[in-house]
Amino acid sequence: MDIRSTFAALGYAKTRPATAAIPQEAEQTGPNAFQKATESFAQTLTQGEEVAKAAMSGKADSQALVQALAQTELAIEAAVTVRDKVVEAYQEILRMPV
């Protein structure tokens, strides 16, 4: 047997799980996916506010506050990026000739 074909077979075996079909319950498309994303965004902001309030009253440590602020910042940056892409797509549609 050729050594190169052995490496090719091993490489294929490693990538096979990555190309497997997505289970039905894990697949999210359309309005349901957008709704879940907005709920997750709102939940992240709420958790960040709760941790900030707890840190102000002395019930949470500074590490929890920093982690909550980082998660909130990441969520806001993701939302801004999505908004920018939607606006860019809308502007591109407006530039199309009729």
From TrEMBL:
- Signal peptide start and end residues: none
A single BP term in Gene Ontology: bacterial-type flagellum-dependent cell motility
Annotated localization: Bacterial flagellum basal body
Q: Which GO terms describe its molecular function?
A: cytoskeletal motor activity; structural molecule activity
User: Per the record, GO CC terms?
Assistant: bacterial-type flagellum basal body
Which InterPro entries did the record assign?
FliE (IPR001624)
Which family does the similarity line name? Belongs to the FliE family.
Output the Pfam families linked to this UniProt entry.
FliE (PF02049)
Task: Please indicate if the UniProt record lists Protein transport as a keyword.
Answer: no
Transmembrane domains' residue ranges: none
Question: Which protein are we looking at?
Answer: Flagellar hook-basal body complex protein FliE
- What are the entry keywords? Bacterial flagellum, Cell projection, Cilium, Flagellum
